[in-house]
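Re: duplicated header lines in exported structure tokens

Our pipeline writes sequence and tokens for each protein into one text file. With two proteins the header for the second block appears twice in some exports. Here is an export where it did not happen, for reference. First protein block:
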Amino acid sequence: MLKVFLVEDESIVRENLRDNIMWQQYGYQFAGEASDGEMALPLIRKVKPDVLITDIKMPFMDGLALSGIISQEFPQMKIIIISGYNDFEYARQAIQAGVEQYLLKPVTRTSLQKILLEIREKIENERAQENYLEKFKEDMQEYEQFSRRKFFEKVFEGQLSVQEIYEEAQKLSLEMDAASYNLAMVCLRENRNTEEPSQESRLVAGKREELTRYFLRYPEFLIFRWNINTYGILMKGEEEQMEELKTKCRENIIRICSGHDDQIEWCCAIGEPVERLSLLPQVYSKVNHMMSCRFLKPGQHILTMETTNLVQRGKEESSLVKVDTAKVDPEIIKNFLQHGQVGEIDDFVDGYLESLREGLSSKLFRDYLMLSIRFTTIAFVENLGYSQSDLLENTYTDKMQILSLNMEDMRFYMQELMHRALELSNQALESQSKKLIKKAVGYIEENYAKDSISLNEVASVVEVSANYFSTVFRQETEMTFTEYVTQKRMEKAKQLLRQTERQSGDIAAEVGFKDPHYFSFVFKKTQGCTPREYRSGMRA
């Protein structure tokens, strides 16, 4: 209900309005009263009513002065002036003060009720418009995130020439021109060992939002979503600025993400600056290598070339005594299989074996290590519902003699074993995703005409986090959730325009749009013409 506040110095008039108007019947709650503007102002600031009814002539502070202050502080508040002075000058001043309506005493119940209904309808329409504008803004942000990710994937994989980078960036309104560039990656997820996507905690969602909001404030940073748990931050500026930008980036990632290690797992890797866009794939390769080492450095939040460069050159004394037993923990392999990506396998295997180099001269240790990795990987795929033969059959790994392998063969064995394991994992996830998307699409089919349908609502129905659902939905349908829902609505709208004589406003309401103007805007944006033009074209 809308809240209404009454200011009137004549107690009889005030009580009559307060007690004889059926406020609730007309969608209002009587929220307070005062005898003059001076007494009313602090109460209005506290109550924040939607509608203010005030007399124009009162002691201490009159209605015009009060209306002027309220209009400045609460521009959305509707003001009704009532007065016994039938004077154009007062009306003119009232309009200048932002007054919605001007009524003369004696105010009849009928006239006030009529105005209250008109104002309620106006407020509801304004709020609906604001909601749709906000929704449109969110839709555009979601689409922009998806487009940015695709663009940066092509940049870092070296698929675009420098000219194509600038052309694609211009389409996305991204300013890429700079003297120097660098890249940071941030991985942020729940601190728990689980293979099932679930409802994401408010803490993690809040940290992700804070991270995005901070870096969007500065033009020298371009933040983009990389995968479900990872964000990329492209730094750009003058060559002499890059060290400062790197420090600023690192310090703010630490500030935002730290302090909740019992609930959040996070780490970031930052590369070294280059002076050409064409060199960004090299920067990405190094950053990706550092990120793959997060499985070997659990609990280490800042990954650098120094902390992750585990290759030790030259002759070293090999001794089992020097082996760090924590690095042989099967949980490292299990954790990578659960959360790693196929593109990280080679870097992970290299880093893993190099971290154990001091013990690899021992045949006994090599045999133990390979057996441990084999059994851990078999257990992983069996937990997914596959068998040992699904993992090993028809692979070189199955034909290799696992014992007495040299360093190069061990590397090859691990790489192929993990590639096959993640291939099976992706198949399982794809199957799970297809079931999830099938259920989501079924729900959307039944509910797309609801104006309130949202990504969060559908994610809740299929019992996964909104973050996970958004990513999987894009991967499976190759469009964002909003694009998909809009497409369904437009298909139905076109059918109704072709087959019925119904008004555009009625069709808008039937396909999920409260505001016919917003419906026309979306229709033209997606179909290239207005609903009227579409209907006329079908009949031409």
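Second protein block, exported in the same file:
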Amino acid sequence: MLFKTKSYFLLALTAILLLQLGIAKAQTNIIPKPANIALGNGSFIINKQTSFSYPKKNESLKTLADYFSNHIQKISGMSLASNQKSAQKIEFKLVDIAALGREGYRLNVSKDLILLEANAKEGLFYGVQSLMQCLPAIRTNEALKVPFMEVTDYPRFSWRGMMLDVSRHFFSVETIKETIDLLASYKMNVFHWHLVDNEGWRLEIKKYPKLTSVGAWRDEVYGSRWYSKDSTLNFNDTYKYGGYYTQEQAKDVVAYAKARNITVIPEIEMPGHSGAALAAYPQFSCTGIPQAVPNSSVVGGFKGHRGINFEYCAGNDSTFLFLQDVMKEVMQIFPSEYIHVGGDEVEKFRWEECPKCQARMKAEHLKDTPDLQSYFIKRMENFLIANHKKLLGWDEILEGGLAPSATVMSWRGEKGGIEAAKQGHDVVMSPSNPLYFNRYQADPKTEPFAAGFSVNSLDKVYGYDPYSKALTAEQHKFIKGGQFAIWTENIATPEYLEYMLLPRLPAIAEALWTPVSEKNYDDFVKRLNQWHFNSWAERGISFYQGLYKKKY
């Protein structure tokens, strides 16, 4: 009888502990959800006596402590000391734990110590992001409490990216930095900067100043739903629209992103989507005919606007010399391993009509224009390889044969990525459905005007998995990760940019970071409601509110 009583007591105690643990888990708001987390009862309370602890000679850890300290001061007014004798410490420690990789971290929060360990500064930075999500989002007089917990965390994929188009609509350096801060807070690590397209060239190239003096500005039309400034005015009137980043501004963005463990990858479109460059330097087109920078009146025009050159001439050697000169300056600005060359939606009718392109095809024994596109991409790849860079392109670079060491970004579904992985090439999955965030996120009848090809809702984004079932487990090693994209035909303001980002950004962040076994959409939405929605609202950040304050 005594044995049974003890057994019932232990069962009841276990049930109470499990209930308490469940309550603690419900109060954990971290996104993306950690790979492994166990919570206890109680909290570490950050106060004026709390001190940061780290090796004094390690500048990167000092920088991280300053970063976290500045955040604490911003939300509480407290200034924390470093490496002082204190009863309470926030300790940063570099370790050697193979399972964590470079981006993983281990976090232990107890009464008098927050111990954050990682193999590298990247992991420590991500651990800090998790801690920051345990604190208030804005200035408060409340105690800064971090719940007792043990966390072992690391990402599922190494590539967790965003692409932003600044050609259709230009965004200031300030907005770019604010976007990078949002990416960093959700442990994203790639910012793919779509700097050039038909509608505007956005990066200073000193050897070719007309790229910005001419190519960065277009005569936009009023009333267009694509690039509208004032839809009440006459559609036939125009206004000057544009802007560009100086090389110093671009370097500043690169440094800002690097401090937040984000790599900036520039995209210089070729051979198509080059209308702005060819407005500045028409001699690199097939016809050589001067033209204006294309505006919204020719969106999607291509063959319908045969008077406009969108593609570089592939038969003209000066085209390649020009692009190599451009790339030399781009590589001085962006230290990234990759340079993105676009390669998508090349309208090849010009090449079919161009004597120089036809002569190139004959000389190189190319059977058709897809082969000519492959020649173009391979020639640029050789230049990049000679300069210790890797070529990245949209899945159309598969046409005519893939360049030997190219990495494919698959946007037309997953088909191109699957094909590239089967050929042994690295792949970043970026299927337009569901990862184009310029598309509607809810019923178009209730939403601001957006691209209407699919409704890329929050649950669809959250459920996305870059590992295609069409690939074997061995072929999965070529899938580096995933990336969402925001094309800005319809997105003219920072506020609308935020709206289209949130809350889909944390959804893809969790999809790319958290083990599948730990994912749960309902729990994700709860965490959004328990901290993230309020955090954005308090900070004046725009977001889709369809699931805000949902009752549970």
